[in-house]
Design a protein that fits this description.
- The structure is a single chain.
- By secondary structure, the protein is an alpha/beta fold.
- It has 13 helices and 20 strands.
- The chain has helices at 3-11, 15-33, 36-47, 50-71, 73-77, 93-98, 100-103, 128-142, 193-203, 212-224, 245-255, 402-416, 447-450, and strands at residues 110-114, 122-126, 153-156, 172-175, 180-183, 207-210, 235-239, 259-263, 272-274, 280-282, 288-292, 304-310, 322-330, 344-348, 356-357, 363-364, 377-386, 389-396, 421-426, 441-443.
- The strands form 4 sheets. A 12-stranded mixed β-sheet has the order 4-5-3-6-7-8-9-10-14-13-12-11.
- Helix 10 (212-224) crosses helix 11.
- The chain is globular, with a radius of gyration of 22 Å.
Length: 451
Amino acid sequence: MTGDLKFKSFFLLPHSLKVFTTSLMAYYKKRKKYGQFFHRYYDFLLTSSSQVQEKKAEEELEEFLEYIKKNCRFYFRNLSNNYDLKSWPIIDKEIVNKQYSDFVLNKPYFIGKSSGTTGQPFNVPYSKGVYQKEYSFWWYHRSLCDIYRGDKIATFAGHKIADVRRNIPPFWLYNFAENQMFFSSYHLSMKNMPEYMMMLNRYKPAFIHGYPSTLYYIAKYILNEDVQLDFQPKMVVGSSETILNFQRKAIEEAFHTKLYVWYGNTEFCGHITECSHSRLHVQPYHSVVRILKDDNTDAKLGEIGRLVATNFSNYSLALINYDTKDIVKIGENQNCPCGKGGTVLDYIVGRIEDYIITPEGRFVGRLDHLFKDAKYVKNAQIVQKDVKRIIIRIEKEDGYSESIEKTILLEAMSRLGDTIDVQFQYVNEIGKEPNGKFKFVVQNIDLENIM
């Protein structure tokens, strides 16, 4: 069954069965997420200092590299004789995809799918330890604002709640397994916003997280329409996109709560969180992070570079000196009153994404999902110059076919609807922005005149 048919079948279910199905799958995943490794790592993060965490990371990195030397085929040919990461080769998604079997180690406990900002698909196998370790970092960050498992969560991300053509509520699904309400990001419009506000006031979440573009749209509505919220969340977290200053201002004003940055990726290479003093901290015990300049030398304080990371806990996939292609700036001032340690960054440049605006007035962000199952797509970009049409630009590889184009088209229609014209443009190379990154969504519509 294709992903499109699977979702169509899900959309046809009565709402109560959707809730049951969603919760059942969440219970299954909950058992995988919160096992012995989760509790061990979570307790360690809560009770240890940053210095202890850094020392522990050094010890586990050495053990991991020793294991890699003996068990990873890629490094048989690129073997380093020491534990200094500067002597190990730098790799990226394209290198790993081309020699995928040479990087895979053991049978995975779980497999994640990534497309990232480039649109290039990537399957990431996880060992049990690293999978549960990732969730320990999630809850460790949330504990900064006294958010704990069992508290009410509202999620505004890329979950498919209902057919995009649906024009009556509900546009949300409750997950009994984690006391979580999933809200659709694909039905946001002036017409539907009163329904969203009603459900938010009824649910009263303690924790809200999602894509900044979606949270910003909701915040603008609250402020413009003078909506009165019957609750105040303890914490709001934005992830998967760069949080722009105007977005932060609106979100914090609307919810009367600080907005926190949470940076991560499907590869589990590099983890950055914002503290209560609004400083961005690289988490040293999550993975070893290097910030490299164009010549692959380490950036210094105050300099900009690429985030290159080594996950030393994933014994199913060897990602050493993995270039995420995301750009960050190291802070000149490394002192922070929070005492959490880790390299302090001024900002994350990567992952700036815009909305795609549909003819019905819906604002849809984070559309990298279109390419998660699309093989032979080297790179992709979505361009919109008017609300009636988008252009999907693709750098294709050998093996790309009409059936893959059809799959991408169906995914686009499932999120954007069938009233917007979707065109494909095949190019040899997609140009980059002056900062070395390329924008996944190039959107040339004046948002201020629409909102």
